[in-house]
């Protein structure tokens, strides 16, 4: 029996529907015979387990104000180009682009003609995206003969030369580490990044003994290992070089890089909004296309990312403001498929709390505590959209590192009501096949992120004059 329900709108294109829908996965009789020994996903659906976790949004008793008016969305993509040098198809280069927009939800495009035309917006975004080069396989750098060292040097260059609203990615990395683990915080307070090891495999600090406190390095410049004297860069903390392959494709390393950069950009924009216009911050939603999590080698960064968002929230509260909405929207993965399967058990405008038991036993998500800085929620939106969201807790961890402590209580997520409200308003745009920033830009007034600062100044002036606010 097919378990995927049709989307409510004809424009919605669930990429997975064709693969998991009416046709059997395979017609190979041998595979089918063996597969018969496995339970189908819907066999694990338990209406009673679901019902006790479903809550109507109106029962949340959270402040619905201020209503979200602005959305900042970023989304990145990477591409590995083969044949970097003619006639040598194994020579590859990596390239990434990160799109970002600032959306004013009060201005529908069709109501006004004073905004950027979506067609022209694409060009404007091209010009304003963060983009970057990294070396791939079989490339020899003129200075760094070891290809992995060249990759590390280029990643450092990318972080030192890329600015997000007047902060470089390196400065943002330092800011994040100020809110990391205690040892990271101490180092960051001195302007240093603490590397957990030396990347040089022949160095004794490559496999340091237990109790090793790390190698502190300057946050803004290259230095040398105190043991082996080889180059060290602050960006080595991300350990993406461990995924780098000098003689094979590097899509994974590329994905790790743009994942980290996207999260840093979203945070960097929020910090700059706070400086420019703290009054508009509570009306802004920061939207990430994917989970609020850092996967793979750079995963430890998730601690500092959560800490930095929480510190920003705490400053908002101390100013007497509500915090901004911060949310990740996942479009693929098993939790997304599971939610489509159980949609009949969750009424519209209801959320489902996903405690550790449900995450582990039914969604089969592991290593949550090492990666996620937001908590997963299912939401059946007003218009029928099914959303898998991650939302940071106001304090403490998203998932407990100690086994017995379940941290899924809803009061830990005071922005939930406003998160669902803005998702209801964004509606099917969140599930368009396009990148979220581009999809949003087709419906609302959108500004390339590079211009957001100028736009914010205008909006702030309007607010001060008593106009344009709500
Ligand atoms: Zn070393």
Description of the structure:
The strands form four sheets. Strands 1, 2, 3, 4, 11, 12, 13, 14, 15 and 16 form a ten-stranded mixed β-sheet that branches. Helices cover 32% and strands 18% of the residues. Helix 6 packs across helix 8. The protein has 470 residues and is of the alpha+beta class. Strand 11, helix 9 and strand 12 form a beta-alpha-beta unit. The protein has two domains: 317 residues, no CATH class; 108 residues, no CATH class. The structure holds zinc ion (ZN). Zinc ion (ZN) binds next to loops.
Key terms for this structure?
470 residues; alpha+beta; 10-stranded mixed β-sheet; two-stranded antiparallel sheet; 16 strands; disordered N terminus; binds zinc ion
Domain count: the total is 2
Termini Cα gap: 48 Å
Query: How large is the count of helical segments?
Result: 15
Largest sheet composition: 10 strands, mixed
Please state the structural category.
alpha+beta
Over the alpha carbons, how many angstroms does the gyration radius reach? 23 Å
Question: What's the total count of β strands?
Answer: 16
How are the SSEs ordered, and which strands pair?
Layout: H1 17-20, H2 29-35, H3 47-51, E1 54-56, E2 70-81, E3 93-108, H4 118-128, E4 130-135, H5 147-161, E5 163-164, E6 167-168, H6 169-177, H7 182-189, E7 192-195, E8 215-218, E9 223-224, E10 231-232, H8 251-276, E11 284-289, H9 301-318, E12 325-330, H10 334-341, E13 350-353, H11 356-362, H12 368-371, E14 375-380, E15 386-391, H13 416-426, H14 436-441, E16 444-448, H15 452-464
Parallel strand pairs: 2-11, 11-12
Antiparallel strand pairs: 1-13, 2-3, 3-4, 3-16, 5-6, 7-8, 9-10, 12-15, 13-14, 14-15
Helix pairs in contact: 6-8, 8-9
The protein binds zinc ion (ZN).
């Amino acid at each position: 029996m097919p378990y995927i329900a049709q989307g409510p709108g004809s424009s919605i294109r669930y990429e997975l529907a064709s693969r998991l829908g009416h046709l059997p996965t395979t017609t190979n009789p041998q595979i089918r015979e063996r597969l018969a020994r496995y339970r189908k996903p819907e066999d694990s659906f338990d209406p009673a387990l679901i019902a006790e976790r479903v809550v109507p949004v109106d029962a949340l008793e959270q402040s619905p104000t201020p209503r979200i008016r602005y959305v900042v969305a970023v989304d990145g993509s990477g591409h590995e180009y083969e044949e970097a040098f003619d006639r040598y198809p194994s020579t590859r280069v990596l390239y990434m682009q990160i799109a970002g927009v600032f959306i004013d939800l009060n201005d529908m495009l069709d109501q006004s003609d004073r905004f950027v035309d979506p067609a022209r917006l694409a060009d404007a975004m091209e010009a304003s995206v963060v983009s970057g080069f990294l070396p791939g396989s079989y490339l020899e750098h003129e200075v760094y003969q070891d290809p992995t060292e060249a990759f590390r040097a280029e990643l450092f260059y990318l972080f030192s030369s890329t600015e997000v609203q007047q902060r470089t990615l390196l400065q943002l990395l330092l800011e994040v580490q100020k809110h990391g683990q205690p040892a990271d915080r101490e180092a960051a307070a001195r302007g240093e990044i603490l590397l957990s090891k030396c990347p040089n495999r022949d160095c004794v600090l490559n496999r340091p003994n237990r109790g090793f406190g790390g190698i502190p390095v300057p946050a803004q410049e290259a230095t040398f290992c105190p043991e082996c004297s080889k180059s060290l860069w602050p960006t080595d903390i991300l350990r993406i070089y461990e995924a780098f392959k000098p003689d094979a494709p590097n899509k994974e390393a590329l994905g790790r890089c743009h994942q980290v950069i996207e999260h840093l950009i979203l945070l960097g924009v929020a910090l700059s909004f706070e400086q420019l216009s703290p009054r508009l911050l509570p009306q802004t939603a920061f939207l990430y296309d994917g989970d609020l999590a850092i996967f793979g080698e750079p995963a430890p960064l998730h601690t500092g990312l959560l800490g930095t968002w929480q510190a920003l929230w705490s400053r908002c509260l101390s100013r007497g403001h509500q915090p901004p909405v911060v949310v990740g929207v996942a479009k693929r993965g098993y939790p997304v498929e599971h939610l489509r399967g159980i949609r009949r058990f969750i009424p519209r405008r209801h959320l489902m709390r996903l405690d550790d038991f449900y995450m582990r036993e039914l969604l089969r998500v592991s290593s949550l505590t090492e990666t996620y800085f937001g908590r997963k929620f299912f939401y059946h939106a007003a218009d029928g959209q099914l959303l898998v969201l991650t939302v940071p807790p106001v304090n403490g961890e998203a998932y407990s590192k100690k086994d017995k402590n379940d941290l899924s209580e809803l009061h830990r997520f005071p922005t939930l009501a406003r998160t669902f409200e803005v998702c209801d308003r964004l509606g099917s745009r969140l599930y368009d096949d396009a990148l979220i920033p581009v999809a949003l830009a087709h419906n609302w007034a959108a500004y390339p992120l590079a211009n957001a600062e100028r736009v914010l100044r205008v909006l702030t002036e309007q607010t001060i004059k008593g106009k344009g606010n709500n």
